Amino acid sequence: AETTEKPVFNNLNPEQFSAVQNNEGPSLIIAGPGTGKTKTLTSKIAWLVGNHKAEPEEILAITFTNKAAGELRERLEVLLKNKTKASQVTVATFHAFGLSVLKEYHTEFSRSEDFILADEGLKLEIIKSFSELKSGEAKKLSAEISEIKNGTKPETSSFTKYEKELQKLDAFDLDDLIAKPLLLFNKNEKAKAVYQKRFRYIFVDEYQDTNDAQYRLLRQLAPDPSSNLCVVGDANQSIYGFRGANAGYIQRFTDDYPGAKVFRLKQSYRCSQTILSASSDVLSQSSGFLQGLTEGVQVSVSEQPTGAAEAEFIARQIVELVGGVSFFSIDSSVTRGEKNEGISSLSDLAVLCRTRNQFEAIAKALNDHHIPYQDVGTVPFFREEPFQSFVDLLSVFLSGNFEKAAPVFNLKKRAFSKLQFEMAKEETKKLDAVSFLNYLKDSFFAGQKFDNQNWERFTGMAGNMQNWGEFLNYVKLGSGADIHRKNLEAVSLMTLHASKGLEFECVFIPGCEKGLLPYNLYKTEVDEEEEKRLLYVGMTRAKKLLYLTHARSRTLRGRKFNLPKSPFLGSIQQELIQQIKNKPHKKPEEKDNQLSLF
Ligand code: ATP
Ligand code: MG
Questions:
Q1: 302: β partners
Q2: Burial, 337: exposed, middle or buried (Cβ in 10 Å; 0-12, 13-18, 19+)?
Q3: In angstroms, rounded to a whole number, what is the distance separating the alpha carbons of residues 425 and 307?
Q4: What is the spatial distance between Cα 205 and Cα 63, in angstroms, rounded to a whole number?
Q5: Which residue in 251, 370, 538, 572 has a CA-CA distance of 20 to 30 Å to 186?
Q6: CB of 478 sitting under 6 A from ligand 1
Q7: Would the ipTM clear 0.90, i.e. be above it?
Q8: Residues 269-291: pLDDT tens digits?
Q9: Is 38 in the pocket of ligand 1 (CB under 6 A)?
Q10: pLDDT tens digits, residue range 289-300?
Q11: Ligand 1 atom nearest 32 alpha carbon
Q12: Ligand 2: distance of its center to the CA of 543 in Å?
C-alpha cells in the first residue's frame, strides 16, 4: 500500500548518515569498494523525498547501467514504501537521460517524435550507403565520426554527409545521445534553463568513469558553484579510461565546486579484511583507509597446466562449495558442502574474466559438471546475430519509414514488398507483442537459428515494455550487465568490466597471467595501472572467498599461448595467500538432462 510514512535510516553508520542529511550545495563522496556509496546515494534521495525536502520530479540520479538504474528505483520503492513516488524520480544512465532530452527537443534537430536510434550496425550501413567504403574503412570512419561528435576532432565533409543521411532516416546515433543535448544546451538558453530548473538535485554514481562529454553535460545542468550536485566514486575503480573516462574529474570536483563538502567512508560492509588487504596490495596501496567486517580466510591461488584444467578446477571447487547435489533439484533438503562459508546458492558465485574469449573453456567445464550458469558478456545476446538483424528489421517495420530506411537496412526488394503487403493485413495489427515477434521471425528469418531460451527472454522483454519505442531503445542502449539476474540459481560468468558495482560471496578470477592481466595479447600499448584497477575491481566483488588462478598454457581464439603468472599477483603479501594444488577427483556423474541456461 502507498503511504506517506517517513522512511527510517537506522541502518546507516554515522558517516553515511551525515552524508545522507547533507544535500544542500555540492558534495563529493569518495570511498573504497563496498563502503556503501551506492546505498548512501539511494538513501539521500529517499531522505529528500521522504522528508518533503524535494519533489521526486526534481531529482535526477545518473547510474552506470540500466540495471543499476532499475535496482536504485527498486531500493527507493522499499525505502519510501511508495511506488508512485519512486517512479517519479528520474533514474537513468547518461545515455538514457540524453535520449529523454532528445525526445523532448527533437524538432530542434529536425527529427520526428518517433525518431529511431542508430546503433553501431546501422551506423556502418549508413556510412557504406554514401561512401562505398568497405567494412574496415567504414569502421575507421565510424570511429572518426564519434571523435568529431565528442569534440576531439574537427568536422570533415564525410561527417557532414553522414549527418545528412542520419537526418533523412529520422535517426540519431548513440554518440548523439550526449553530443546533441550538449549542443542544444549550448545554443538554446531556454532549453537549458528548463533542465536546470527541473532538476534541483542531481546525483551521479560511479563518477570515476565519467568521460569528457558526460562531464560537460553535467556542468551544463549544474553550472552554479552552489548547485545541489552530489557525485559518488572511487578513483581506484576507474576502469573505462580506454573509452575516454577520466578519473581526474574526481580531483577536479573541488576546484569546479570550491565549497563542496567531502565525505569519506571507511567501513567496507562487503569484503573481508584479507580480501581488502590483498586487493590493495595489487594497487601497491595501503588498505589502512578501509576496514573489513571480518578477518576472513586466505585468498586462494592456484596454478594449472592448461586453460582447460583451470576451468575444470573452478568447476570442481564450485561443486565442493555448494555441495555435490543435483542443481536442478527443487528439494531444499539436499546436503550442501561443508567448508562452504555459508554459501548456499549458485547465485553467490561468480567467475570474472578479462576477456570474453576465456568464457568458452569455463562454460564447457561448468556444463561437464551440470552447473547452470548465466553468461553476462559485455555485449548482450540481443546485440549479437541473428538478434541484431532481427532488431534492425523490427526498427524498419516500426518506423513506418520504409522507403527511406529499407535500402540502408539492406533489405531485399522481395522481402521488403512482402513486408508492406503483410503490414496491411488486418490480423497482423491485432497480434500482441509476443505473437507479432514470432510472426516476423517466421516470415523473414525462417532459415535462421535463434537460441530458444534467448528468444523467449527477448519476447518476454518486449511483452513487459510499455511500447515498442521503449523496447527498441532498451535493446539498443543495453549493456551485458543489464541482463544479469541476481537471484537466478546459476553461477554468473562475466567480464571484469561488467562486474562493477556488484558483489558475490565467492569470486573466481581465472587467467591471472601476464598477457591477460595486464591484457596485451593483441596490442602493444597497455595502461598497466588501469589493468591493476580492473583486477582490483574484480577482487573487491568478493565478500568471503576469492580464487585467483593462472595456467601455464591456454588456447584463445584458436591460438596457443604460454603465459607467465601475472606480475600483479606477485605484489600480494604471501601470508594472505593459500596455494591450492589439485586433488584427485571422481569423474562427475553422467546425466542426460543437461541444461545450459543461456
Ligand atoms: P562499490 O564501490 O563496489 O560500488 P559501494 O561503496 O557502492 O560499492 P554498496 O554496494 O552501496 O557499496 O554497499 C556494499 C554492501 O554493503 C551492500 O550489500 C550494502 O547493503 C552493504 N552496506 C552498506 N552500508 C551498510 C550499513 N551501514 N550496514 C549494513 N550493510 C551495509
Ligand atoms: Mg556502488
A1: 549
A2: middle
A3: 55
A4: 5
A5: 251
A6: no
A7: yes
A8: 999 999 999 999 999 988 778 99
A9: yes
A10: 899 989 999 999
A11: 2
A12: 14
